Structure formats: C-alpha cells, structure tokens
Amino acid sequence: MAPEVAWQGALFEEEPAGGRLSFDGLRRDALDARSWLDVVPGWVGDHAALFDLLRERAPWQQRSRQMWDSTVLEPRLVAVWPTGAALPPELAELADVLSDRYGVRFDSCLVNLYRDGSDAVAWHADTVRKVLRDPLVATVSLGARRSFLLRPAGGGPVARRYAPGGGDLLVMGGACQHDWHHTVPRERTASGARMSITLRHSRPAG
Ligand SMILES: O=C(O)CCC(=O)C(=O)O
C-alpha cells in the first residue's frame, strides 16, 4: 500500500537550464585529493511527479535490524531493485543518462522514503566499496530538503554540508566510500517527507 506522507510538490516545476536531465549546472566539490562529490541542482525537473509516482508504485518495505537481543525497525522505508533487476521506466531513464555520463553501468537501485524528520540514516559508507575500488554512488533527492552531511571515515566533525531536494543530483566518487562517511540525520524542523533515489554499479568502469 502507498505510504501516506506529507509533502506538497511545486505547482510549476522548472526544466533545468540545459534541458531534461542536463549536466550543464554541474559543480564538482573536491573532498580531498582522492574523493569528490558532484552536485547538479534541479537535475530532475519533474521531481514532484516522480515523488508521487514512486510513493504510489514502489515496492516499499519496512526493514528491521538485530541490535544485541532486540529487533529494531529501520527509521525509513525502502524499495529495492537489486543488481540486474528491471527498473521501472522512470528510474531506468535516470540510470541510463547517468551511465552514459559516468562510464559505468548503474545497475541497482535503492529508493529511500524518509516519512518525516524523525526518519534518518546514520553515519556510514556504502558496502559496494567492499567489491569495487572507487565506486560511484548517485543520489537524486525528491521532496523536502534534508541535510546530507559528510565527515572523514576516521571520525571528527562534519566537513561538508549539503541540503539536497527538488530533484538535485549528488554523485559521490573517487575514494569517497573508503575515506568518508555520510548521513541524513534526524531533523525536527523537516518540512515533510523526503525521498532519495540511489543508484549503484556492480562492475568497474570500462
Ligand atoms: O538518502 C540519502 O541521501 C542517502 C542514503 C544512503 O546513504 C544509503 O541508503 O546508503
């Protein structure tokens, strides 16, 4: 069943300056000598329609984790298309455009639904790092803007702060999954639900 969540999409959504799914506005932020993060503001123009479509149709699951001797629910819903699974056309289009741009085949997708400001994901790096040297992880943010923070994997204070939403694209690359951790923290003042479409590849470039 489609989750009931609150988020009022823009009435008039803007097509990005260079056209649909254009990389014209791309900015690359160097995190250090080995790691970087690409930002494309408003990459998906029709982000509110995509939010509604995924809310209604994605195969949402509530996952749980074993913590010591108790089972805890993950504080978000997820929809998973594992490696090689056929993506719905709206997600396949994003994967294809990103694959052309970055020279790897984005072949798995995890969509996260943060129902309100108490849903979150803790500091972590993506497990794909265990099988790929420098994996790329692409994230499209829909719905409410939420903080997306990075800090060195060894710990320490937050080093970079982003507030993606409105169809923004973030792509983590280089050694980011080895040397850096990221989080979407709880946010009491969140303006509603947020969705993130995360795309990963299972094979190295080339
Ligand atoms: O929601 C996001 O932007 C990040 C999600 C994430 O890091 C993950 O699912 O591993």
Question: What's the SSE blueprint?
Answer:
Elements: E1 27-30, E2 35-40, H1 47-57, E3 64-67, E4 70-73, E5 77-81, H2 89-102, E6 106-114, E7 121-124, E8 137-143, E9 148-152, E10 160-162, E11 168-174, H3 176-179, E12 180-184, E13 194-201
Antiparallel strand pairs: 1-2, 2-11, 3-4, 5-6, 6-13, 7-12, 8-11, 8-13, 9-10, 9-12
The chain binds 2-oxoglutaric acid.
Q: Please, could you describe this protein's structure?
A:
The protein has a single domain, classed as Alpha-ketoglutarate-dependent dioxygenase AlkB-like (Jelly Rolls). The strands form three sheets. It has a seven-stranded antiparallel β-sheet. It starts with 26 loop residues before the first strand and ends in a 5-residue tail after the last strand. It contains three helices and 13 strands. It is globular. It has 206 residues and is α+β, with helices and mostly antiparallel strands. The site of 2-oxoglutaric acid (AKG) has 10 residues, from strand 6, strand 12 and strand 13.
